[in-house]
Design goal:
The structure holds 2 protein chains of 2 kinds.
Chain A: E1 2-11, E2 14-24, E3 29-33, H1 40-47, E4 55-60, E5 63-64, H2 70-75, E6 76-79, H3 91-101, H4 106-119, H5 135-144, E7 153-157, H6 165-180, E8 184-189, H7 192-198, E9 201-206, E10 209-215, H8 216-221, E11 226-233, H9 238-247, E12 252-256, E13 259-265, H10 271-280, E14 285-291, H11 295-303
Chain B: H1 2-14, H2 17-34, E1 41-47, H3 51-61, E2 66-70, H4 73-82, E3 88-91, E4 96-99, H5 105-145, H6 166-196, H7 198-204, H8 209-238, H9 247-271, H10 275-293, H11 305-309, H12 315-326, H13 337-366
Parallel strand pairs in B: 1-2, 1-3
Antiparallel strand pairs in B: 3-4
Helix pairs in contact in B: 1-8, 2-6, 2-8, 3-5, 6-8, 6-9, 6-10, 6-12, 8-9, 9-10, 9-12, 9-13, 10-12, 12-13
The chains are: A alpha/beta, B mainly alpha.
């Protein structure tokens, strides 16, 4: 079991992680969800023994890693946010390099490289130079480089950043397969749908702190009394918005690409009133969707801001 | 560490341009500049085949400051028409002609020396004709004894005597200058590995910091040293440059100098965030060090006190002086121990400061926050 106990990190005067507690049991898939700059990368750097915490401790199988991180490191595969590869080397040469530094050699190394290349779908491109790869292929090889020594825990730091939807879908499917095969996963992202798809347990981080954690269902329970209504109109006027805010003072409003999203208590019966206000404001509602709560709503509810703000 | 060497070697194999370019540049520049006129005035000379013109030519050959190229009278005429910068002399039985586009002090001085040669040879001829060879010998001895001043040049310290070998000046200067780039570019891999996250991957694979630094730095060092030794070898054993028996001493100094350059490069990358920042600093600093360290010209000709005072900050200065001492001045290792120990001490200090600054900065790379 990997445990973070009251982990904090301070750079000069800036506290980037504040008393974070995380638990990761064998076979679990845990998500660390938060916007950019929330402290996710620093937290996983401390969890993976790369950064010393300013205070708090990380336990691996109930033993502190502060003095001896090697047992954890042997069990750990880390996929960094950056493309940590040599661009001038081929895919196979990169894997051979990382396999070798992880203590693999000879026949075993060659077999593992082929296994990993098959798993990440790059077997037919193994001899190609990495700098000629697409962003998605580089990301896949970046993941593959962390798998050579058969780690029991995989920590992935935003592995789908900056790639096309097709590559992203491929990576997510691959990671899903790792989870199905029983690998323990710690996955950080600011894409709510990725975490929702892959993880059983979720920690939500903002401004260096864990602001909520639990299973998807438990977290959604936090906003179970809420409902989200998405409105599409012919013209979104200030007057319409002002009237809505007066009518529903407890609700939160957000405008994203001409869609007005309103989060409010389920106890209210808003649709009739919304249509009436629209008519009075000379606004035509072209669609209205009442949505079930999502992690996005949970984040909005907890912080008052959208995950990607 | 072996893994780092293999990766770096593969990388070099795929991108050998920089190393090849730096080596070729050193060879070409040192050859072109070093094989020029040694600071002497190049003069084309044509004789008419008479005893007198031949004797004057021999006399001129004894003069310092001229590099004489013997050609035919026709060639001299043609050269004079084509090359405006040429200085040439046509020597005949009783007269001479100077070909020059300008009437400079150098040309007037050359003219005086030619006249003096003609007059001395005529005088000697006349004496021998009248009194025989013995009479000339007596005159020579009496001329020697009756000299108003007997000038003897001597320095209190042998090292203060300025000796200059243009070929070695260029060879050492350009070698020390270009290897600065080769080593720095290789050391920058540390910065790149830290930026891309490869460094962290290696740390997570339980490769110690010591192994990481030794792996990268030893590779950079060997590549730099190979470049220097290759250039020195080519000049000594292929082009036959005279190193006054100090080839291996120069090699040992180069080994220490490359260590110093490597340490300096580590220090530079510890101060910057990106490889491009480091490249800019290295480019500027290498040129400045070469200028104030005496790579482009001997420091003995520099007049500025300020420029001379700055030579101590240039790694090139220590190596350049040491190399000249063990070759041109035919000195022993004892004569350069100050320079060598300075290089070693500075290298150790820069390495220690550089690595500790790099380690402090590294934590920042772990976090994108």
């Amino acid at each position: 079991m990997l445990q973070a106990i009251n982990l904090s990190k301070k750079y000069k005067t800036k506290v980037v992680v504040k008393e974070v507690n995380v638990e990761l049991f064998a076979g679990e898939s845990v998500g660390l969800l938060g916007p950019n700059g929330a402290g996710k990368s620093t937290t996983i750097s401390m969890l993976s023994s790369l950064v010393q915490p300013s205070s708090g401790d990380v336990l691996w199988n109930e033993k502190s890693i502060a003095k001896n991180p090697d047992p954890l490191r042997k069990a750990l595969g880390v996929v960094p946010q950056e493309i940590a590869l040599y661009p001038e080397l081929s895919a196979r040469e990169n894997l051979a390099f990382f396999g070798r530094v992880n203590g693999l050699k000879g026949e075993l190394l060659a077999t593992r490289i082929t296994e990993v290349l098959t798993k990440i779908g790059l077997l037919d491109r193994q001899k190609d130079i990495v700098k000629t790869f697409s962003g998605g292929m580089k990301r896949r090889l970046n993941i593959g480089s962390a798998l050579l020594h058969k780690p029991s825990i995989l920590i992935m730091d935003e592995p789908t950043v900056g790639i096309d939807p097709q590559s992203r879908a491929y990576i997510l499917e691959t990671v899903k397969q790792f989870v199905a095969d029983g690998m323990t996963l710690l996955y950080t992202s600011h894409y709510m749908e990725e975490v929702e798809m892959l993880c059983d347990k979720i920690y939500i981080m903002d401004q260096g702190k864990i602001i909520a954690h639990g299973t998807k269902e438990e977290l959604k329970e936090l906003v179970s009394d809420n409902q989200t209504i998405e409105l599409k109109t012919n013209l979104l006027t200030e007057n319409f918005e002002k009237n809505l805010k007066e009518q529903f003072p407890q609700a939160t409003f957000r405008i994203d690409e001409e869609i007005l999203t309103i989060s409010m208590s389920k106890s209210e019966e808003p649709l009739a009133n919304i249509f009436a206000i629209a008519a009075a404001s000379n606004v035509v509602i072209t669609s209205a969707i009442v949505k079930v709560p999502s992690l996005e709503d949970v984040f909005l509810h907890l912080t008052g801001k959208a995950l990607r703000d | 560490m072996k893994g780092i060497w293999i990766a770096r070697f593969l990388n070099l194999k795929r991108k050998p341009v920089v190393l090849i370019m730096m080596t070729v540049m050193t060879l070409v520049m040192a050859y072109v500049v070093g094989s020029s006129s040694n600071g002497k005035m190049s003069v084309s000379v044509a004789v008419d085949g008479t005893e007198m013109s031949q004797a004057v030519l021999e006399k001129l050959k004894e003069e310092d400051g001229y590099s004489l190229i013997e050609i035919t009278a026709e060639e001299l005429q043609q050269k004079a028409k084509k090359d405006i910068r040429m200085v040439g002399i046509g020597l005949k039985e009783n007269s001479y002609t100077i070909y020059s586009a300008s009437d400079s002090d150098n040309v007037r001085n050359l003219s005086l020396r030619i006249e003096s040669a003609y007059s001395n040879i005529s005088f000697k001829k006349q004496v021998i004709q009248v009194g025989g060879v013995e009479a000339w010998k007596d005159i020579e001895i009496s001329l020697q004894e009756d000299q108003a001043f007997h000038i003897q040049t001597e320095a209190m310290d042998e090292s203060e005597v300025f000796r200059y070998d243009n070929a070695l000046q260029s060879l050492f200067g350009f070698t020390l200058f270009f290897v600065f780039y080769t080593v720095s570019i290789n050391v920058q891999f540390i910065l790149e590995d830290k930026r891309t996250g490869v460094w962290n991957r290696l740390k997570l694979a339980s490769v110690s910091k010591f192994q990481l630094y030794v792996g990268h730095l030893s590779f950079s060092y060997i590549i730099g040293l190979l470049q220097v030794m290759l250039v020195l070898f080519v000049f000594r054993y292929v082009l036959g440059t005279n190193m006054y028996g100090g080839f291996w001493k120069v090699g040992i100094i180069a080994a220490i100098y490359v260590l110093l350059v490597m340490a300096f490069s580590v220090f530079v990358i510890s101060l910057v965030k990106t490889v491009s920042q480091s490249s800019i600093i290295i480019s500027l600093v290498a040129v400045a060090f070469a200028m104030i360290g005496g790579a482009y010209w001997p420091l003995e000709i520099v007049q500025s006190e300020a420029l001379l005072a700055m030579k101590w900050i240039s790694p090139i200065y220590y190596a350049m002086e040491s190399m000249k001492q063990v070759t041109v001045y035919e000195g022993t290792f004892g004569s350069i121990w100050t320079y060598v120990s300075m290089m070693v001490v500075i290298a150790i200090v820069l390495l220690m400061v550089g690595i500790s600054l790099l380690e402090k900065r590294t934590e920042r790379y772990h976090s994108s926050e």
